[in-house]
Structure prediction request, 426 residues.
Amino acid sequence: MNTSHQEPERFDVVIVGAGQAGLSVSWHLSNAGVDHVLLEQAEVAHEWRTGRWDNFTLVTPNWQCKLPGYDYSGPDPHGFMTRAEVQAFVQGYAESFNAPVRTGVEVTRLAQRDEGGFDIVTSTGRIIARQVVIATGGYHDPVLPAFAAALPESVTQLHSSEYRNPTDLPPGGVLVVGTGQSGTQIAEDLFLEGRDVHLAVGGAPRVARFYRGRDCVAWLSDMGVYDVSVQQHAGGLSKRESTNHYVTGRDGGRDLDLRAFARDGMHLYGRARALQNGRITFDPTLGASLDYADSVAESIKDDIDRYIAREGLDVPAEARYIPVWQPAAEPAALDLEAAGVATVIWSIGYRANYRWVHVGVFDGAGHPTHRRGVTDAEGLFFLGLPWLNSWGSGRFEAIARDAGYLADQLLGRTNAGLPREPELAR
Ligand SMILES: Cc1cc2nc3c(=O)[nH]c(=O)nc-3n(C[C@H](O)[C@H](O)[C@H](O)COP(=O)(O)OP(=O)(O)OC[C@H]3O[C@@H](n4cnc5c(N)ncnc54)[C@H](O)[C@@H]3O)c2cc1C
Prediction:
């Protein structure tokens, strides 16, 4: 540890964050003998330890967990690791190459130096680095709607990142707001435990788990969908704002069909709009949201069918999905007390937090601007962001490819670019 009056430490490269992204680039730097350190505010795989619920499983199959020099080698490549297994996997990776991680060190300020390189203020002292990789994940500050403040005090409210299990919640009904991957899986978790679940459905798409004998993820992988870069996509960079398809890996994997939940007794609503006097109102969007989610799932199956035909593959046919429930009407409002709702779980996502980064590489919305993680600020990089380069960039699927690309940039500069220590001005 050094304090503010001590000489700063110096490294060629500082990586901020010791999740799978930071560790992946560290693996390359370690192999190349580059002097570097990972600064981690908590512990290795912190997000997997603290930001997921007890019954969490990966949504992506285990075979997609392929980090540089460290593929999944367990007994169930087509299964979905539990939270504890993912933690162990990422922890095992750090140990496999003795990653130079300093835990419990938060980076509180990052700024460029006039002399080149970066000044890094941390909770334990100052560091100077020639290059910095920001690998702090894509999910920082939990988002709550402004009207959350109007919730009666008698109702417990939490963000999806704080949800652990049904028994931690007070008895009574639960309203889950949002149907991205977290909201749909949490709603199912509660429903399976026999809780009375109300679900405000948003505009997220869904995907079938299996189709024509295989996991849809396997089909999409073979079809090259995960190799398409964000620039090549019709929507271009706006893809970075898109919501992931909902599906689950629980119990070997299955669809998350909200219509089936409703048929079996879950209460579905449209988008939550406002909250007043303990009464929450909804937009009339339920029918359209369910139709949209199904249409995306079916269009993915169309693509798979076309691929199978084109490749001449001999695989079983499969009947298409037939909606198992339709809303009789658009529910306008829910009186929380009258319905016995004791808990609200906001599952509407996260906002990025780069307030500690004092380098001019952000757009008006606070998102970093970069190409494949390379910013316009010499020596500053991002890794692990959703759609950094392709669909899998914010997940296990593409992190090896993205980290390899970034390592080439870092090593190129380390070997040729910026002045080396001790030439770097003090
Ligand atoms: C609910 C949910 C489900 C997901 N499911 C899947 C899935 O099924 N499959 C899949 O492949 N991906 C999944 N992901 C996405 C992704 O794989 C994870 O978010 C993963 O944790 C990303 O790894 P990372 O290394 O980029 O970031 P993180 O794991 O978030 O690691 C970033 C690290 O940076 C540290 N940090 C942050 N700020 C600072 C600072 N200022 N100073 C020092 N340290 C700092 C944090 O403590 C953390 O340890 C899911 C994400 C969520 C939210």
